[in-house]
Design brief:
The complex is a heterodimer of chains A (454) and B (115).
Chain A: H1 3-14, H2 27-58, H3 64-90, H4 124-145, H5 152-172, H6 179-183, H7 191-209, H8 230-249, H9 257-282, H10 291-306, H11 314-337, H12 346-364, H13 372-400, H14 407-412, H15 414-419, H16 444-452
Chain B: E1 2-8, H1 13-22, E2 29-35, E3 42-46, E4 49-53, E5 56-65, H2 70-80, E6 89-95, H3 108-112
Antiparallel strand pairs in B: 1-5, 1-6, 2-5, 3-4
The chains are: A mainly alpha (454), B alpha+beta (115).
Chain lengths: 454, 115
């Protein structure tokens, strides 16, 4: 380190002691806070990488391009709609508590870049970006549950509207300072606002869409449809865990040493306990451990702690995680029993454990003002609203554009049906693909498409 | 000439290759296949639901040899690929009409000679 570095470090470290008598956060602390928040935004972004990998691993190879495309679309559309209207729907400023809109586009205003904006926690731009990363994760939860049979354009319409309007208006009720916030409802990093909202959407989608062909036999037997790539699924879950360092750590909304460090500890303990909890719970099903269940267990623990990561003792975090791990196993088996097909277990991880995490705040929180009843009211409000909106969206799309691909396409694979390409080039070849015949001459792709409609 | 087609357990591939080398066979083709015999496959579990996997991974070896070598090749494969447990596989011997060595144009015995 050079002399210049030492001087800069000294200035930053000494800055707090040079603060004025007013409550202004010093420039050094403001910078430190903002850096952490920007890093947190990047970590939450990594969760999209995690979701993409996990979903690709848990579904079949003939649909891999399709599921990856959906994940790619969601992050792009999500950030853009959040810029266009989402941010200002979720944080409308002064509003009636139920619905407000602070205008299209972004406007940092006079204080957006100063410590006065958010108690010195971050700038307006950081605020927008961090929240934008959260928004897109709500839609990506749905993509796992509707995988392998939803039409791509239909999903794109649903997820765009869902992130832009449903997630945001609902989010304003708590994080935007709305009526649930006034009531004392608590959701630290989004067990309800992100995970259960996504989970309700996933449940409604899976129900209206129906199960994948061949999954449930008439006599009630379940035919497993194993995922195509367990390494991808595992890497995905580890990336999600990594992303959660920012998802929860950044929800402190500053780099406050005590809160951020406690939050990361409770988060990781819950994740670990979730994994073990799922492993233990699964021993009641079979003596042979299921990797995908253990992975779901880790996520269950993470979702479970997300509502109160900053108001839990480490021991409570472990208990919450263990219970979440058990719940997710039971939930996966239950949904299969009632014939709701969820290829990746999204409903069980995000809805079931999102609700559990929210209620757990009312049970375990170190803050005596948190109450189980208030948490329950919050769960119910988000449940009713999201179910209504998701139902309207899915049914409306079903009636107009159609929701589900044809039977032939589902059997052939959505990669070919929706994208005309495949993910894995396993066929032996001469080293390059053969080009299609020149325009005018009937290409084989056009010929096949024509034949398909006969 | 005779074609010897052997369907064996995948982990026996290296042993088979060595055994063939020991009886003077230096060329063969292998492919990865799936199959089952009388005893069918086995059942597996995925997220709590049981399912039957009938088609188990196997390896198919194809070797073309002169008539007089067929017997010793078959015996060598039979010995080295046997584990005594179900799924060991099968060997089929069939006649070959013609063989061509693409590089040189040699036909029949010249095409499959190992020297």
């Amino acid at each position: 380190m050079t002399r210049k570095h030492f001087a800069l470090m000294a200035a930053i470290l000494l800055a707090p002691t040079l603060a004025t008598a007013e409550d202004a956060v010093s420039p050094g602390v403001f910078t430190a806070n903002n850096v952490w928040m920007m890093l947190a935004a990047a970590l939450v972004f990594i969760m999209h990488l995690g979701f993409a990998s996990l979903e690709a691993g848990m579904t079949r190879a003939k649909n891999t391009v399709n599921i990856l495309f959906k994940n790619v679309f969601i992050i792009c559309a999500g950030i853009l709609t959040y810029y266009l209207c989402g941010f200002n729907l979720m944080y409308p400023g002064d509003f009636n508590g139920f619905f407000g809109f602070a205008g299209f586009g972004l406007d940092p205003g006079a204080t957006g870049m100063s410590p006065a904006y958010a108690d010195g926690g971050y700038t307006y731009w950081t605020d927008f970006l961090f929240q934008a990363m959260f928004a897109a994760t709500a839609a990506t939860i749905v993509s796992g549950a509707v995988a392998e049979r939803i039409k791509l354009p239909s999903f794109m319409v649903f997820s765009t509207v869902f992130v832009a309007l449903v997630y945001t208006v609902a989010g304003s009720w708590k994080w935007g300072g709305g009526f649930l916030d006034a009531m004392g409802f608590y959701d630290f990093a989004g067990s309800t606002l992100v995970h259960s909202v996504g989970g309700w959407g996933a449940l409604i989608g899976a129900m209206i869409l129906g199960p994948r062909l061949g999954k449930y036999a008439k006599d009630g037997r379940i035919t497993p449809i194993p995922g195509s790539n367990m390494p991808a699924a595992t890497i995905g879950v580890f990336l999600l865990w990594l992303g959660w360092f920012g998802f929860n750590g950044g929800s402190v909304l500053s780099a406050d040493p005590e809160l951020t460090s406690l939050t990361l500890v409770t988060t990781c303990l819950a994740a670990a306990a979730g994994g073990i909890g799922a492993m233990i719970a699964f021993t009641f099903v079979s003596s042979k451990p299921d990797l995908s269940m253990a992975l779901n267990g880790i996520l269950a623990g993470l979702v479970g702690i997300t509502a109160g990561a900053d108001v839990m003792t480490p021991l409570s975090a472990i208990i919450i995680g263990l219970i979440a791990g058990g719940l997710v196993v039971g939930s996966v088996l239950l949904f299969d029993r009632i014939k709701i097909d969820d290829p990746v277990g999204a409903i069980s991880v995000h809805l079931t454990c999102g609700i559990w995490g929210t209620l757990a705040v009312g049970i375990f929180s170190t803050n005596p003002e948190h109450s189980f009843i208030t948490q329950l009211i919050g769960v119910a409000c988000y449940g009713v609203f999201t179910v209504l909106c998701a139902s309207a969206l899915f049914l409306g799309i079903k009636a107009t554009m159609g929701l589900r691909v044809s039977e032939e396409e589902e059997l052939e694979g959505l990669d070919y049906g929706e994208h005309g390409m495949h993910a894995y080039d396993v066929a032996p070849s001469s080293g390059s693909a053969s080009p299609a015949p020149a325009k005018g001459a009937e290409g084989s792709y056009a010929r096949q498409a024509a034949l398909a409609t006969d | 000439m005779k074609k010897i087609e052997a369907i064996i357990k995948p982990f026996k591939l290296d042993d088979a290759k060595e055994a063939l080398g020991a009886v003077g066979i230096e060329g063969l083709t292998m492919s990865e296949v799936r199959g089952f015999g009388r005893q069918k496959g086995h059942s597996e579990l995925y997220r709590g639901a049981e399912y039957v996997v009938d088609f188990l991974p196997k390896v198919r070896l194809e070797i073309v040899v002169a008539d007089e070598q067929a017997e010793k090749v078959t015996k060598a494969l039979e010995e080295v690929c046997s584990t005594g447990r179900i799924g060991d596989g099968k060997i089929f011997v069939s006649p070959v009409e013609q063989a061509v060595r693409i590089r040189t144009g040699e036909r029949d015995e010249g095409a499959i000679s190992q020297h």
